[in-house]
Amino acid sequence: VTAQGIDSLxxxxxxxxVLLNVWASWCQPCLDEMPGIVRLRGEYxxxxxxxxxxxxxxxxxxxxxxxxxxxxxRVNFPTYIIGxxxxxxxxxxxxxxxxxxxxxxxxxxxxxxxxxxxxxxRSYKELKGEVAALLAx
Length: 137
Description:
The protein has helices at 3-12, 28-43, 62-73, 87-94, 124-135; strands spanning 17-23, 49-55, 79-81, 104-109, 114-119. The chain is α/β, with parallel strands linked by helices. Helix 1 (3-12) packs parallel to helix 4 and helix 2 (28-43) packs across helix 5. The longest helix is centred in the N-terminal third of the chain and has 16 residues, at 28-43.
């Protein structure tokens, strides 16, 4: 997916809050936080929260590492692989202050102009607190 494609995905969401997580199969902290993300997705309605995963893996790892991990985690929401393209442009689009370190989670409230950038592994409790804060009236 291209940087422009990610921007389109974020804007197209019908949910009030969008959580976009950038991860990789070779990143142990990414793998460790994934059960919390899957759990969080299951606790909110599709009208309240959209979760989108973006794998930073190489396309060559799609069948050998990415898909098997997602199947093990029972991920049932949109997942993309970043693939080629200008990585600096991709980073700038998500957050110009982001170094590109993984895992990284971007949470945005539609229509409110509020967003959060969380770099590094986060617990389920931390992620839920951020989402709840953006869903609050």
